[in-house]
Amino acid sequence: MSEWVLETQSISKSYGGVKAVDQVTLRVKKGSVTALIGPNGSGKSTLFNIISGVDKPDSGRILISEKDVTGYPPHKLFQMGVYRTFQNPRLFFGMSVLENTLLTVKSPGDNPLAALLASKWLKHELNIAEQAKEILEMFSLSEVYKNGASEISGGQIKLLQLAMVLMANPRLALLDEPIAGVSPHLVPIIFNALLRIREQGKTLFIIEHRLHELFEVADWVYVMGRGKLIASGKPSDIVSNDMVKEEYLGSSMV
Ligand SMILES: Nc1ncnc2c1ncn2[C@@H]1O[C@H](COP(=O)(O)OP(=O)(O)OP(=O)(O)O)[C@@H](O)[C@H]1O
Ligand SMILES: [Mg+2]
After folding, report:
1. Which residues contact 132 (CB under 8 A, 6 or more apart)?
2. pTM here?
3. 12 lines ligand 1 (CB under 6 A)
4. d(CA 137, CA 107)
5. Ligand 1 mutation target, pool 36, 44, 50, 228, most atoms within 8 A of CB
6. Per-residue pLDDT reduced to its tens digit, 128-142
7. Nearest ligand 1 atom to alpha carbon 47
8. Which of 17, 230, 235, 251 could bond to 215 as cystine, CB 3.0-4.6 Å?
9. How confident is the model at residue 124 (pLDDT cuts 50, 70, 90)?
10. Nearest C-alpha to atom 31 of ligand 1 is from which residue?
């Protein structure tokens, strides 16, 4: 088994005349927390769209655990354990917090043989309910589990997104700005939730602009600038990289 969950090989994508992603080659190690940073418009979300099958690359390849999955649709990638959260949360707002959490679980009903064995199925359902309870507690959401997803606060929505990541138990979770837009007092709470996910040995690939906090949890950092990968390294190397400082001039990092 390869130690790399994800490999992108020379991925490019243009919109009209804009090279949103320009020959990006990178790898994400199994069990790591890997960060993807870069100024606004540098192509980070576009790269996540391509990895998660939301968009197709113009050229290049995507490998998940060494399998070439280039051009696979999102549901097929989800079945393979690629889970993605969006910059603007996509939840079922007409459903409750608990229902949203349960939705991410692949049911044994997906397997026609397992679905026939009612006893096995019931046990599975009970285990899932138990697990959901634990995860919602972990993220301080047990008080609101019956509430509609439209009734909870912005910070709770971010926490719910992370609870759904743990519940989905993916091979690779792509988190697009899991902290953006929350009030400052919630930032440490959400980072703590990320630390809890990390403790469980999950592989996380995270886009985030809050570099100070992100660098506390990241093992490895990739930096994009105008569609290209411009640097990579440990957080301590990245903070002292001159090219990175230049790209971020005037932003939160310098
Ligand atoms: N669907 C699209 N159609 C046209 N242009 C797009 C599309 N998606 C992205 N772009 C362009 O591609 C470039 C990269 O955008 P992208 O959203 O990937 O950046 P980003 O690094 O995620 O930025 P941010 O930090 O602001 O979220 C930008 O110039 C953007 O305008
Ligand atoms: Mg983005």
Report:
1. 98, 101, 102, 167
2. 0.89
3. no
4. 22
5. 44
6. 888 899 899 988 899
7. 18
8. 235
9. confident
10. 41
Separation CA 55–CA 160 (nearest Å) = 25
Position 37 scores a pLDDT of 96
Query: Does any ligand 1 atom lie closer than 6 A to the CB of residue 170?
Result: no
What DSSP state is assigned to residue 148?
B
What average pLDDT does range 209-236 have in this prediction?
93
Segment 106-119 mean pLDDT: 63
* DSSP reduced 3-state for 241: coil
Q: Give, using CA atoms, the residue closest to atom 6 of ligand 1.
A: 15
d(CA 224, CA 232): 9
The reported pLDDT for the residue numbered 254 is 40
Atom 11, ligand 1: which residue's CA is nearest? 20
Cα 42 to ligand 1 centroid, rounded to whole Å: 7
Q: What's the average model confidence in pLDDT over 236-249?
A: 82
For ligand 1, atom 18, name the residue with the nearest CA. 43
Q: Are 252 and 209 in contact (CB under 8 A)?
A: yes
In angstroms, the CA 250 to CA 215 distance is 19
Asked whether 225 lines ligand 1 (CB < 6 A), one says: no
Find the farthest-apart pair of alpha carbons in the chain and give their distance in angstroms, rounded. Answer: 61
* Rounded CA separation 63/27 (Å): 9
Residue 86 confidence (pLDDT) above 50:
yes
**Domain covering 4-249, topology:** Rossmann fold (3.40.50)
Domain ranges within the chain, ordered by starting residue: 4-249
Residue 112 has pLDDT above 80, yes or no: no
